[in-house]
Structures are given as structure tokens and as C-alpha cells.
Design goal:
Blueprint lengths: L1 H43 L4 H6 L1 E11 L4 E4 L1 H7 L7 E13 L2 E12 L4 E14 L2 E15 L1
Parallel strand pairs: 1-6
Antiparallel strand pairs: 1-2, 3-4, 4-5, 5-6
């Protein structure tokens, strides 16, 4: 009888562990899909400004190092002014990784090579974003980007 009780407890523990892992996997997939949708909108440039801006928290910290220049910080208001001029990117390759750190905090890494047709050069842009789920919506609270010319 004791062995039967022990087996039942082990089975129940295994089921609850499986359910917890299934839930985390579902949340991870949701986060990955949301982050990839954002990246698609970002790659579309200014035609997706509303969607791009909606992803940022108004108090987000934005930093960028462009083409060996100094690290620059930007505000949401500056992003708002720049977004209509955001170029569409012809992406050649993308490497991405998303990690759900908690149910309300996620990390998104993207490195992509793309052509800026308006300038005629190829750029490697690498960014890391911290996302926070607020009021049921994911918002970028921190982003750091590095841009380097690959060839001209």
C-alpha cells in the first residue's frame, strides 16, 4: 500500500512538473512571436511607425553606437520624430534569440545584415532589448544597438 501511494505521488508530481513546463513553453513561444513581429515591423521602416512606437514604453532607455561613433542615448520623443524617416531594410541574414526571463520580463537579441538602398551600403545591426509585460502588453524598456558598415 505504501508503495502504491508513493507511485501515485510521483506520478502526480510528474504531471504538475510537465504542466508547468508546458506553460513556460507556451509563454516562451508567445514572447518569441511578439519579438519577431516587432522585428518585421522594424524592418519595414516608416510604413510601420505606429506598430514600432506602440512597442516602446515612453520611459524606455535607448542607446546606440553607430559606425564607430560615441554611444548616444535617445528618448521616446526623439524616436517619435525619427520614426517617419526610418528606412526599409532589405535583410540579407538574421540571427535572433529570445529568452523569457520571468513571466513579465524578456530578453531579445537580434543581429542582422541588411542593405540600406537609400545610401547604397550594407550594415550589420546588432541590438539587445529588454521587454517588460505591463498591463498585459509587452513593452521595450531598454534597447542597445550597434551599427557597423560591412561594405559600401
Amino acid at each position: 500500500m505504501k508503495n502504491l501511494l508513493l507511485i501515485i505521488l510521483l506520478v502526480l508530481a510528474g504531471i504538475s512538473t510537465f504542466k508547468a513546463q508546458e506553460s513556460i513553453t507556451s509563454e516562451q513561444r508567445e514572447f518569441e512571436e511578439m519579438a519577431r513581429t516587432f522585428q518585421d515591423n522594424y524592418n519595414a521602416g516608416s510604413e510601420k511607425c505606429d506598430e514600432i512606437l506602440e512597442a516602446y514604453h515612453r520611459d524606455a532607455r535607448l542607446t546606440e553606437t553607430a559606425f564607430s561613433g560615441p554611444l548616444k542615448s535617445f528618448t521616446y520623443e526623439q524616436l517619435l520624430q525619427f520614426c517617419p524617416h526610418l528606412p526599409k531594410k532589405e535583410v540579407i541574414e538574421t540571427t535572433t534569440e529570445q529568452k523569457l526571463l520571468t513571466s513579465k520580463l524578456g530578453y531579445d537579441y537580434v543581429s542582422q545584415l541588411y542593405i540600406r538602398k537609400s545610401i547604397g551600403d550594407t550594415v550589420r545591426e546588432t541590438s539587445s532589448k529588454i521587454w517588460e509585460k505591463r498591463n498585459g502588453k509587452w513593452k521595450i524598456i531598454h534597447v542597445n544597438s550597434l551599427l557597423n558598415k560591412v561594405c559600401k
